[in-house]
Amino acid sequence: METNAFSVALEKNPVISIKVIPGHFSTSNAHTNNYLDVGGLKSDALVARNVARELAIPYLSSTLVNAIVCMEKTEVIGAYLAEELSQAGNSVLNTDGEIYVLTPASNVNGKLIFLDSVVERIREQNIILLVASISSGQTVTSAMECISYYGGRLAGISALFCSSRDRLEQEVHALFTSEDIPGYRLFSTNECELCKAGHRVDAIINSDGYTLIG
After folding, report:
1. At what angle are helices 45-56 and 75-85 packed, to 10 degrees?
2. What value does the mean pLDDT take over residues 190-213?
3. Residue 96 confidence (pLDDT)
4. CB 23, CB 33: distance < 8 Å
5. CATH of the domain at 117
6. For residues 203 and 213, is the Cβ–Cβ distance under 8 A?
7. How far is CA 3 from each of CA 21, 22, 23, rounded to the nearest angstrom?
8. Which among 109, 150, 163, 175 counts the fewest CB atoms within 10 Å?
9. How far apart are CA 104 and CA 107, in angstroms?
10. Dihedrals φ, ψ of 181, to 5°?
């Protein structure tokens, strides 16, 4: 499967690239014809710092940020993003301000929550929501509901990849979109054209990677 893989680099910063693996993949609520490996963006310290610099640009001079809520193991990028947003500079709004990097927990029902020990860092604070990938938008919607429930103010949404900007009311600042991936398609589970054409599912994917089937 990976023999057909190719890379897509960010034009303005080629250090940042994602591996694209064509095939037939299933998520918990959708099917797609490409698996996008963003693991290197999250785990390679040098690349993660570059990612944070790019993601910081829309916020530097215009957005007050008190905390970054990280989903899908983006904490390394979140820490660098906090550093970028609090750097010294005449046009940097958050200079010398404290920016917390937080990750919600899940309760026994799988619902996102913030523990009592960190709630004060969310309530009435300006929050950036950072996610690895947006496809159906369910992860982002759940995280937004959690932030709102605990009294946080959503200051922005940032993503490494976003394929569903039209499904969210809020603007998403994404490094890559489906327009950057040649032939990228996303299908609802019941309307998958690959399934209708008789193509078996190659792997099940989530934010951690993929598991081959068969």
Report:
1. 50
2. 94
3. 65
4. yes
5. 3.40.50.2020
6. yes
7. 8, 9, 11
8. 109
9. 10
10. -110, 110
